[in-house]
Design brief:
The complex is a heterodimer of chains A (about 280) and B (about 475). Chain A has helices at about 20-25, 70-75, 110-120, 140-150, 165-175, 190-205, 250-255, 260-270, and strands at about 5-10, 15-20, 35, 45-50, 50-55, 60-65, 85-90, 100-105, 125-135, 150-155, 165, 185, 205-210, 225-230, 230-235, 240-245. Chain A is of the alpha/beta class and about 280 residues long. Chain A has a seven-stranded mixed sheet, sandwiched between helices. The longest helix of chain A has 14 residues, at about 190-205. Chain B folds into three domains: about 5-135, Alpha-helical ferredoxin (Fumarate Reductase Iron-sulfur Protein, Chain B, domain 2); about 150-245 and about 400-465, FAD/NAD(P)-binding domain (3-Layer(bba) Sandwich); about 250-395, 3-Layer(bba) Sandwich (FAD/NAD(P)-binding domain), CATH 3.50.50.60.
Chain lengths: ~280, ~475
């Protein structure tokens, strides 16, 4: 159980893991997440489900190596097993009511919109994708997206692929061209979800985001993942992780994300031998 | 020749209630080892000698699971902890845990006849002694095999689920306990701190259930990994003991600043995830000045945990007075001994700070007329606002039942507080699905949850025609 069947390096520091857990695979839906512990005594860390295969009993995760747990995970080999793996948690993202959709992914946010795009196309919906990353190396699943989406727009900070600029530049351009989306689903770094939400608010385009908060149990017990949405206290684990992007208090959520920044950086530096400040 | 009973009674008057051995406060605030060491043999024998072995024992009625208290104390009088343990485990699968965390002063000891003559028998400490000193092969005694071939699923491995499992396994029923977390024990491992309930002891008592045939599956979130309808396909009945997970907040400004934790998060980081150990992967921020909101057992646990993690000043902030504090007297006394400040009659208006907690704004209260709970209502005194400088705030004002399961289960109805609705037989609104403990009542005690688990076990045994 919880065996890493396949490990593929997709870019520097970005690894795709295929993990065997038929119980989780049997129930997984797009938008849900799992919590794993690499080895006994380790942290519980949530990751969004990138893909699932009910027949093979596998869950696919796309994970960027940024901290202690993701580093320890990156050191695991195919055939190794994780200490704990629980899910699927959170609510599935159900976009069935919409017909013309724009899915926006920043960095490995592509991992979240990938299963969604697959599902939506199987339902015959019109799906445009905007992928953004710092560099072309960090663009994920471009070919797979091209095979399923109506249009795939690529934006990089440095212009190494697609157009130079941010995902919001492209979204603005598409709106300016007169394309009317029923919904925008944005997933990526919290700051990116904030700017997308700010943009679409001006045009009253329904926008959903997936909140990647601090979390321990993932079942509504610890309260660490609380976010203020429309003035109400909600829990990303049991009420989300997807919320109305126009209602989320991003400034508060961004502040809460930095709660353990120092400890996380210390732990990462201790493991990798890197000096402070090299990674964030 | 004196009459035996009389002699015993006169002796009982002479022996004073024995005190348990404890770590010194100044020593224990620097470690997470158990505060109380319980009785040694000499004290145990003296304390056991105080019991009158009443013919019509009030203490048994005072116990939520009706342990044969005179029965086990009679064995201790003979210095026979093995036999005492056997007597206890006939009704209670978790004596080491109950001996430590039950509020005996509200239950068995409250009605002990010796209480009227001075001080009640220290029943809790004697129960603990039996569990800690029994060397008998620890396994739950089988009552009958009438349940062979029947299967029952239990949701949650906390006290309610464990008690239910312990009673079902006696009848040869196949019992599978599903736990959402990676460790077994529920609130016994994530909530109650090591210094009050060592986790090795929880594991040992759960192991007795395993040895007796109960199967445990960790990392299964019922409602997600498997649903209640899934379980009903495989099992004859289901017991839900999913606890009161969802933390409450006060609804005041600043609650989402960095440095504000629900007690659940704070305690889970420290207890379950072992943040108190050097090199733990789970972080916790070092706090210097801590305010704990609330004055129940969880508040005392959080305050004493913060102290052990190196806080310089820890204050309990409570809107009513000392007399209304819901924590056990023993816990409050321990907290005071350790140097925790009790700010009674203090309301909190806001948590102050820009990004991080910098302080709290409080107001003095007085007590007015009793409210619905029967306790006198706190009333703010105008113009008495004052600030306290703190860097960490821990909310320990209660939990409501975990909503996850009810949300995921069609037909499983809850009351307006989120508690599962059950009938007199503890059956929920879904047929053959029973529930008990905090999932039904909201946050209460370990022993009440165990009592509820046992009540459901009986109802399940009757439903499955194992008991008639």
């Amino acid at each position: 159980m919880n065996e890493i069947l396949k490990k593929t390096v997709k870019a520097e520091g970005v690894i795709e893991y295929v993990i065997y857990n038929p119980a989780v695979a049997a129930k997984a839906l797009p938008g849900q997440f799992i919590i794993l512990i690499v080895a006994e005594g380790g942290e519980r860390v949530p990751f969004t489900i990138t893909d699932y295969d009910r027949e093979q009993g596998t869950i696919t995760l796309l994970i960027q190596t940024v901290g202690e747990t993701t580093y320890l995970l990156s050191q695991m080999k195919e055939g190794d097993s994780l200490y704990a793996f629980v899910g699927p948690l959170g609510n599935a993202t159900d976009l069935n009511e919409y017909n013309k959709l724009c899915l926006v992914a920043g960095g490995i946010g592509a991992a979240v919109i990938f299963p969604q795009a697959k599902l939506l196309k199987s339902l015959g919906k019109s799906v445009d994708i905007i992928l953004g990353a710092r560099d072309k190396e960090l663009l994920m699943y471009v070919d797979e997206f091209k095979a399923i989406a109506d249009n795939v727009y690529i934006m990089t900070d440095n212009g190494s692929a697609g157009e130079q600029g941010f995902v919001t530049n492209k979204l603005q351009a598409l709106i300016d061209k007169g394309i009317t989306y029923d919904v925008v689903f944005a997933v990526g770094p919290m700051i990116m979800m904030k700017v997308v939400s700010d943009l679409t608010r001006a045009y009253a385009i329904k926008t959903l985001v997936s909140m990647n908060t601090i979390m321990i149990d993932g079942t509504g017990m610890c309260g660490g993942c609380r976010v203020t949405v429309g003035g109400k206290r909600l829990y990303a684990c049991v009420d989300g992780p997807e919320f109305d992007g126009h209602e989320v208090d991003y400034n508060e959520a961004l502040n809460r994300l930095t709660l353990f920044k120092e400890q996380e950086q210390d732990a990462y530096c201790r493991l990798t031998g890197e000096k402070h400040g090299k990674k964030s | 020749m004196p009459i035996a009973g009389l002699q015993e009674k006169s002796m009982a008057k002479r022996v004073e209630r024995q005190k348990v051995l404890e770590q010194f406060p100044l020593e224990r605030i620097h470690n997470f080892e158990e505060v109380s060491h319980g009785f040694d043999k000499e004290r145990m024998l003296l304390e056991a000698s105080r019991c009158l072995l009443c013919k019509n024992p009030k203490c048994v009625q005072g116990c939520p699971v009706n342990i044969d208290i005179p029965g086990f104390i009679a064995q201790l009088k003979e210095d026979n902890p093995d036999k005492a343990y056997e007597v206890i485990t006939a009704t209670n699968a978790l004596p080491g845990i109950c001996g430590r965390v039950c509020p005996q002063e509200e239950q068995c000891e409250k009605v002990c006849i010796m209480g009227k003559l001075g001080a009640p028998v220290a029943i809790g400490a004697l129960e603990r002694y039996s569990a800690d000193h029994s060397k008998a092969g620890k396994k739950i005694a089988s009552v009958s095999q009438a349940g062979n071939g029947k299967r029952v699923a239990i949701v949650g491995s906390g006290p309610a689920g464990l008690a239910c499992a312990g009673d079902l396994i006696k009848y040869g029923i196949e019992v599978v306990v599903y736990e959402a977390l990676h460790e077994l024990g529920g609130v016994l491992v994530y909530g109650i701190p090591e210094f009050r309930l060592p986790k090795s002891l929880v594991a040992a008592e759960i192991n007795i259930l395993k040895e007796s045939g109960v199967k445990f599956l960790a990392n299964y979130v019922i409602g997600k990994t498997l649903t209640i309808p899934d379980l009903l396909e495989q099992f004859d009945a289901v017991f839900i003991g999913s606890g009161a997970g969802l933390p409450s907040f006060m609804g005041i400004p600043g609650e989402n600043l960095k440095g504000v934790y629900a007690a659940n998060e704070y305690l889970t980081r420290v207890n379950l995830m072992k943040a108190y150990k050097k090199g733990s992967a789970t972080p916790i921020n070092a706090a210097k000045k801590v305010a704990v909101m609330g004055a129940g057992n969880v508040a005392m646990d959080a305050a004493r945990t913060a102290l052990r993690l190196g806080a310089e000043k820890v204050s309990i902030i409570y809107r009513r007075s000392r007399a209304e504090m819901p924590a056990r007297e023993e816990e409050i006394e321990h907290a005071i001994e350790e140097g925790i400040a009790l700010n009674e009659l203090t309301g909190t208006k806001a948590i102050l700070g820009k990004d991080k907690v910098e302080g709290i704004r409080c107001v003095k209260n007085t007590l007015g007329e009793p409210d619905a709970s029967g306790r006198r209502r706190p009333v703010e005194l105008a113009g008495t606002e004052f600030d306290i400088e703190v860097d960490t705030v821990i909310m320990a004002i209660g939990n409501s039942p975990n909503p996850l399961l009810a949300k995921a289960t069609p037909g499983l109805l809850t009351n307006k507080w989120g508690g599962l609705i059950v009938d007199d037989n503890t059956e929920t609104t879904v047929s053959n699905v029973f529930a008990g403990g905090d999932a039904v009542t909201g946050a209460a005690t370990v022993i009440l949850a165990m009592g509820a688990g046992k009540k459901s076990a009986k109802a399940i045994l009757e439903r499955l025609n194992v008991l008639r």
